[in-house]
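Weekly sync, protein design subgroup
Attendees: M.S., D.O., the rotation student, P.L. (late)

Item 1: inverse folding check
M.S. brought a backbone from last month's batch and wanted to see whether the design step gives back something sensible before we order anything. D.O. pointed out we never logged the input encoding, so this time it goes straight into the notes. Structure tokens as presented (421 positions):
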């Protein structure tokens, strides 16, 4: 495929990543600085907001991805779901922006999980659908690059919202709405410019309910390498979620920063992270083409664990920034290679189903991070050992996640990249 086509099928990841990195960070900023919850219970507040949405995401994404494998429409089999889901995302982001209580925010976050995963499940089928085997590594690198750029964009918007919240009561409102604008714009580039091809699975007279149930068929248990990879992916992504998910709490609680200082410091931090993350994506992708996907993921786990360890024990902010740099290189490397390995393992005809199931790890990892790292570890350690010790302890749990993720990767058998899957 021409490079321009590869860029188009990767572009929507920028919008998706912008929304989820930004909205979680904005919500954390509201929890820390706007008085939504009592001091010391920020972690449990974040979990209450995220927990129901996680369940919805786990169910919706594989189910809709499977249905899209069989869909025939004038737009193709993926685009209708992408357009509808993205449009609803904007509506539900507006709901989050204007809600002023934990239950209301949690309800709209759950709706956002529904609409976002309604579009993500079908969208993730594009690489297995359209990209030749010899270009999967490059396509994965571009996906990783756009995910990285999206994460950075979301964090910058959130950091600005936190930075100006002390002087402008509408800063969180404007920041949340800006996330929707970025996503909707990136979606239009995909819907208007990507040609999906003609590959569609035949329903053979089966009902749509039967098709939806297929997503959860036990035949998937025969795909051993795929299942091991999903397990590995869950723990690696959980480890990778600790630093971004808890960064607002980390800066405010560990180093005693105000909302203004937290936002300003996060902007400086994001500059370092952006450089390390984006510069590591494409080299990691090229390296994985030479030495294999798994060795690069092992290296990513090692760097991620090292970065979280440095952050956990950093006595001063500059050392914490060093840990963040190692973490960013790790994240960029993983984003570049993870998609390539997954795309090479899934059956192309059922790519919506399998990629949707694989992304159960993505949907649940962040919430598990908030549950264990925030509600269980951070809040309780803050109570036991003093306010500010909790975020440090939580980062060490992330180190353990990286270790488990690396161990679960061992049984995965890489596909032969010299053959077309």
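Designed sequence read out in the meeting:
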């Amino acid at each position: 495929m021409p490079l321009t086509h590869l860029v188009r099928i990767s572009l929507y990841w920028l919008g998706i990543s912008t929304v989820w990195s930004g909205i979680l960070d904005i919500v954390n900023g509201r929890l820390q600085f706007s008085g939504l919850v009592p001091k010391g219970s920020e972690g449990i507040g974040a979990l209450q907001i995220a927990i129901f949405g996680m369940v919805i995401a786990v169910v919706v994404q594989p189910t809709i991805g499977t249905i899209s494998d069989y869909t025939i429409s004038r737009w193709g089999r993926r685009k209708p779901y992408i357009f509808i889901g993205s449009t609803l995302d904007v509506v539900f982001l507006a709901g989050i922006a204007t809600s002023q209580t934990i239950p209301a925010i949690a309800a709209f976050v759950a709706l956002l999980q529904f609409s976002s995963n309604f579009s993500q499940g079908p969208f993730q089928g594009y690489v297995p659908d359209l990209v030749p085997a010899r270009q999967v590594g490059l396509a994965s690198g571009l996906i990783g690059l756009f995910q990285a750029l999206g994460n950075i964009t979301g964090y910058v918007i959130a950091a600005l919202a936190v930075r100006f919240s002390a002087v402008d009561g509408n800063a969180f409102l404007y920041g949340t709405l800006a996330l929707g604008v970025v996503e909707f714009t990136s979606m239009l580039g995909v819907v208007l410019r990507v040609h999906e091809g003609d590959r569609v699975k035949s329903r053979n007279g089966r009902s749509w309910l039967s098709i939806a149930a297929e997503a959860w068929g036990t035949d998937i248990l025969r795909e051993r390498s795929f299942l091991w990879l999903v397990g590995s992916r869950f723990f690696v992504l959980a480890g990778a979620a600790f630093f971004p998910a808890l960064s607002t709490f980390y800066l405010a609680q560990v180093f005693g920063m105000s909302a203004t200082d937290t936002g300003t410091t996060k902007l400086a931090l994001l500059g370092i992270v952006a450089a390390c993350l984006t510069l590591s994506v494409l080299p990691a992708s090229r390296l994985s083409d030479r030495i294999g996907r798994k060795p690069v993921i092992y290296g990513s786990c090692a760097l991620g664990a090292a970065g979280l360890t440095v952050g956990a024990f950093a006595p001063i902010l500059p050392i914490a920034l060093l840990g963040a740099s190692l973490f960013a290189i790790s994240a960029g490397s993983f984003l570049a290679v993870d998609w390539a390995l997954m795309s090479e393992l899934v059956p192309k005809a059922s790519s919506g189903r399998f990629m949707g199931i694989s992304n159960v790890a993505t949907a649940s990892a962040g919430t598990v991070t908030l549950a264990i790292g925030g509600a269980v570890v951070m809040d309780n350690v803050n109570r036991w050992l003093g306010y500010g010790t909790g975020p440090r302890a939580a980062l060490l749990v992330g180190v353990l996640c990286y270790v488990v993720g690396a161990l679960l990767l061992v049984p995965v058998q890489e596909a032969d990249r010299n053959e077309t899957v």
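Discussion: DSSP finds 15 helices and no strands in the chain. The domain at 3-195+209-409 is CATH 1.20.1250.20 (Growth Hormone; Chain: A;).
Action: P.L. to compare against the previous round before Friday.
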